[in-house]
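Worked example 3 (structure in, sequence out).
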């Protein structure tokens, strides 16, 4: 297999992975805008990135594969995706342990603050993974005519 094919495959993997990682981040924003324009009501589902995390996980794995092939940005992709995954599992686990997930505990006070802080860290690390994908795509397309 020649380098031209490898480069095209690597670029395709990087682009597809980046799009999949950004999908759970952008979907609630886009759907909120559509709903706002149609109904005049503002409804934002801030939990949607967690619900759509499988897309980001698959995208992150594809992105890591592209970064491995390109021999660049692999640590950033892997660490940010790993931390995002850990934060999501941690926030959900803590919600179950504290009773927030079942409704046994009211969504207020220290348990809610802790769960939401970990969830926000998940979102931040998911965005970092998305940015690392954009940087990888930029690196791979730099210098093309």
């Amino acid at each position: 297999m020649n380098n031209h094919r490898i480069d095209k495959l690597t670029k395709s993997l990087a682009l597809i992975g980046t799009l999949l990682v950004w999908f759970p981040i952008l979907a609630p924003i886009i759907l909120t805008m559509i709903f706002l324009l149609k109904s005049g009501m503002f409804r934002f589902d801030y939990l949607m990135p967690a619900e759509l995390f499988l897309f980001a996980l698959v995208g992150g794995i594809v992105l890591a594969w592209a970064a491995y092939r390109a021999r660049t940005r692999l640590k950033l992709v892997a660490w940010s995706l790993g931390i995002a995954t850990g934060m999501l599992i941690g926030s959900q686990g803590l919600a179950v342990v504290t009773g927030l997930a079942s409704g046994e505990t009211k969504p207020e006070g220290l348990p809610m603050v802790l769960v939401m802080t970990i969830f926000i860290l998940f979102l931040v690390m998911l965005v970092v993974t998305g940015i690392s994908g954009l940087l990888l795509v930029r690196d791979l397309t730099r210098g093309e005519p």
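Notes: The radius of gyration is 18 Å. The mean pLDDT is 93.
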